[in-house]
Amino acid sequence: MTRFSLKDTEKNDTIAIPECEEPLLKSSSSANDDIFDKQYLFMKISLKSVDIILASTIFCFLVICCWRGAWELFDIYDNYFPTYESFCLTMVIYLVLALSQHTFQDIVDQPAETSLRKYFNLLIMKMHFYILLFATIMLFRTGSNIYDDIVNVFHGIGLKFKFWDDDCSASSVILTVIVVAVLTWIRGMANLTTAPMDITCDGKDDIFLIECTFFKMGERTSLYVLDCLFSILVVGTLVVFVWRGVWQLIDIFLFPNDEIFSSWSSLVLGYLVVASAFLLQPLMKYLCERLTGTTRLLIADTFVLYALFGTVNVWRGIWNLLNIYFLPDNLEMSCWITHWVSLIILILCRCSNSLLVRGVYIDAEEPAGKCVVFPCYYLRVIFRKKKLKKLNLATMSLNDTIKKVNHKESASNHVVKISTISDTVEENCDTKQCK
């Protein structure tokens, strides 16, 4: 899913942190470099750990709640959202939003000189966001229903030729393996991951961005339209099929006769796999930095598939437990609450982009080992923004000081002394304090 999200720093200007290699709090005037390096390393590890914990727990739970609420509401009002008609509508929405992304971006980028203009820009952004969220959830719901129909067709063919007995497990296994093989062949496995392996912070620069597989907007419009159709119809549908296939296989094999125990087991198993995936991430990054070609691609895809298994288990566990324990006698109210409360919290936390599917990315296209680095940046983004803000303020203050010094130099027509610069700096400080 989210690997439709923005995975690397080149694609997402909001997260301009290349694995947080740049110091967040580094100072050139440090008296003891060794002590500072240890402090910086501790800070880096601490922030990274907290980001992973936040992504795996709070933000993951909120994302699942929001999706579960909307999905179950679509099922409740199924008569208004028939599968194949809704699937076609979703394709149209994605195509329109992809073709008009720069138009919307140009509207929002215009200077907001009045409050009315600011509210108008905000309205455009939120409407675009929710329409895309609607299309994303509808794509996965209708795609899952289509997958179930295909499984039933496979099952009927199997019974006719006596390939297997009367359960659908073999049909699901065969179809899922085929879909994974095709998605690997077209290098689309990178689009499978989402929370808890991935969170995406909100940003104005990329709020309308929808990536396609090969072309960018403005590069031969006809080919770009075909690329949009390929990205949505082929890659997007295959991603949905893989998700549904893994989910259905877990339903079949993980304590199918005990829904409560199966749900708790899925949650525990999912978090164990997710934790192990994060622990294996440095090793996988080391391998991908030193390997090339098909070997690197297969290792990256295998690791993504392993992370997907943990992700689907977490989603299935939380989803089913919400159905079991949260207002089970009033499913509609339960869905409305989980959807809107979680959505509002994510917007306030500036992580609502984690809910969306924003285009398609290609496997292992990131340099070195970044193709196996899960983008869980939250606190690190906040700290970096504050650091950049301080640097900008310091630069502005220095520029003001230089201008005043140059002005005094030209006025007196003498060589500027150090005391002149000091006096000017003190004047700037006094002025700021007075303000």
Automatic annotation (TrEMBL):
Positions of transmembrane segments: 52-71, 83-99, 119-140, 169-186, 223-243, 263-284, 296-319
Short name of one Pfam family: Fuseless
Coiled-coil region(s): none
Keyword vocabulary terms for this entry: Membrane, Transmembrane, Transmembrane helix
One GO CC term, this protein: presynaptic membrane
Swiss-Prot/TrEMBL GO biological process terms: clustering of voltage-gated calcium channels; neuromuscular synaptic transmission; neuron-neuron synaptic transmission
Alphabetized PANTHER family for the sequence: FUSELESS, ISOFORM A
Name assigned to this protein: Uncharacterized protein
